[in-house]
Write a structure and sequence with these properties.
Belongs to the CFA/CMAS family. Keywords: Lipid metabolism, Methyltransferase, S-adenosyl-L-methionine, Transferase. The protein has 426 residues and is of the alpha/beta class. It has 2 domains: 108 residues, no CATH class; 291 residues, Rossmann fold (3-Layer(aba) Sandwich). Helix content is 43%, strand content 16%. It contains 16 helices and 11 strands. Strands 7-6-5-8-9-11-10 form a 7-stranded mixed beta sheet. Helix 11 links the parallel strand 8 and strand 9. Helix 1 packs antiparallel against helix 5 and helix 8 packs across helix 9.
Length: 426
Amino acid sequence: MADTALRLTSLVEELFGSPFPLRVRTWDGSESGPPEGPVLVVRHRRALRRLLWRPGELGLARGWVAGELDVEGDLYTAMERLVAYGAGMPGSLTPRDPKVRAGLRALTGLAGALPPPAPPAEEARRRGGLSHTRRRDRAAISHHYDVGNDFYELVLGPSMVYSCAYWGEPDGRESLEDAQRAKLDLVCRKLALTEDTRLLDVGCGWGSLAIHAAREYGARVTGITLSREQAAYARKRIAEAGLTDRIDIRVQDYRDVRDEPYDAIASVGMAEHVGEVRYGEYALRLHRLLRPGGRLLNHQIARRPEPGTSYHVDAFIDRYVFPDGELSPLGTTVAALEEAGLEVRDVESIREHYGLTLRRWVGRLEAEWERAVALTSPGRARVWRLYMAASALAFEANRIGVNQVLAVRTGPDGASGLPLRTRTWN
């Protein structure tokens, strides 16, 4: 009888010292593990060869994107169990550990000696050189955002907002569109937009904030993005809304904006692309673009501070989702803004809101799975499903957070122009 699943789970349990938490089914039809709950499906031995050549997250990611690994049952439950299981791995194990070396030899016997196939086509192909140059940033943004506006419509819904919504109830009973509208309005109120406001929307996406700011508050908006597909989509929406006289969308790097001063700047979900080496430059540039008394709203995902930890995103997200993405701790962001001369006046954590939002996006993707695959590719749809579900769990478990930081460029006399009770947002 075929026994590949039993051999594989026994190998993992020997290495980790505890029972594997998922049932496993392998390409020969054999199964092993607990009878209840999600099933980890290893469809082809190529997945094991990928792990041999790239042990850890990247090897697993390539197997998942290629469809060689899958989960039957609830994906969230499967990932929660795997994260908890991995956290229990002995910290002393290294590639030179005799137990690890014996495990790798056994895995070679299961996987076969052939090298793995090439990485899936959805993996970012980056050339050498420094990260966060203008050219490399353009390529990174294109990899993530230029995958088809129809696909993003399917996932994000009519609001076309690719940052966390702002929910009124913990169970997220209101519609995604209402919660996204509430987030856009929160940003506008924090920036105190009026008909006299000149707003710069850094990383404007598909134009949702720009449209809301112009339509609801009368603001004059300049939106910038590095994605040509986003810009074309935003311009079409703006024309249909009759707001071309209030909104200008540019394909432009924030480092190249020269038509200051602006009364307000919104940077929502963009700073994660800036990079630690450019963050001081980013903060200084936004400071210079603001008039004295002008406000900045910086909405940004944050990693929890850990000494000696790189702030680069995980290997899977770096290769398949956000190339060169980095998540800095909240304190790093606040320090950079203050060092640039801005006064930080308010910080609001909205971590739980992102978990609710991501679960809605995953639900939309799963409900329209066949169409999503047709709009992009099977691999791309699998990338988005895994990264959004994993991100939802990370926010819910407080492994990462998201914060809105409101800062002001004070005038020569130190005046901020903010009310004494800031949370009134007037």
